[in-house]
Amino acid sequence: MFNDATSEFDVLVASNAIGMGLNLNISRIIFSTLKKFDDFEFWDLTVPEIKQSAGRAGRYRSNFSVGEVTCIDAEDLPLLHSSLNSPSPTLKENHVEGENELN
Fold first, then answer.
1. Which stretch, 4-8, 13-17, 98-102, has highest mean pLDDT?
2. Model's pTM, two decimal places?
3. How does 64-94 read in b/e, with b if 16+ C-beta sit within 10 Å?
4. Do residues 54 and 84 lie in contact, with contact meaning Cβ atoms separated by under 8 Å?
5. pLDDT at position 101 over 80
6. Are strands 68-71 and 28-31 parallel, antiparallel or unpaired?
7. What is the pLDDT of residue 62?
């Protein structure tokens, strides 16, 4: 319903699962925190996790081609800025014998 222009919903509250491939018309991401909790301890989100979630704002062919990203807590801004300015890690291709091969 968030993507439906005729709906009355214009705010979406989500966990970092928002970064898992949802194609939503989002103009702005506001992180409430850059920490994650696993029932035992808190830790900072990784650079790829931050970039993945932040990348939901302003998407090619969405209603918002340019997005905005910020944090509620100003203390999180240095981590946000350094993460967004960091190069993305190079992914290695893992080839499993027999996978994706033509017979």
1. 4-8
2. 0.72
3. eeebebebeeeebeebbeebeeeeeeeeeee
4. yes
5. no
6. parallel
7. 74
One DSSP character per residue, 10-63 reads ------GGGGTT----BSEEEES-SEEE-SS-EEEPPHHHHHHHHTTBS-TTSS
Nearest 5°: the CA angle 83, 48, 44 is 65
Enter the tokens of residue 68.
Answer: 């905005």
Q: Give just the sign of the alpha carbon dihedral 70, 75, 78, 83.
A: negative
DSSP label of 76 = G
The highest-confidence range among 5-9, 65-69, 83-87, by mean pLDDT, is 83-87
> Using the 8-state DSSP alphabet, how is residue 75 labeled?
G
